[in-house]
Amino acid sequence: xxxxxxxxxxxxxxDIRRILVRHSVDTTKLQFTCTGKLITMTGGIYGExxxxxxxxxxxxxxxxxxxLGMRVYCELENWTISEGSISKKGGNTKEDPKSNPNxxxxxxxxxxxxQDKKAA
Length: 120
Hints:
With about 120 residues, the protein is of the alpha+beta class. It is built from 3 helices and 6 strands. The chain has one domain: 2-Layer Sandwich (Alpha-Beta Plaits), CATH 3.30.70.
C-alpha cells in the first residue's frame, strides 16, 4: 500500500487560486498563504472588477476550500468567516444549520399579543 504524500505548499496555493478563479473572485484584493495545515486569508473577497459577492457565492468558495482538508483563518475587510457562519460586515449573518446543532429555524408568530387581545 502506497502512502499518500501531503500536498506541497505550492500545490495548495495553486488549488486555492483555481477555486478563486472558478468563482470569479478578484485575486488582486485577496491575499492568502498556506503554512502546514492552515490557510490564512487577508484582504477582501470581491468579484471581478471589485463587484460585491453574495452570501451564496462566498459560501460556495469556502465549501470548495474546505474540501482541501485544511483549517482556514480569515481576517477579511468585508466578510466575517467562522465555522458554520458567514456574514457580510455591516450585513446579515447566514448560518449553516447543519454545522450548529443548537441552531433551529424559528417560526414567526402569525399574530402579535395585542392582536390576540383584540380578537378575544
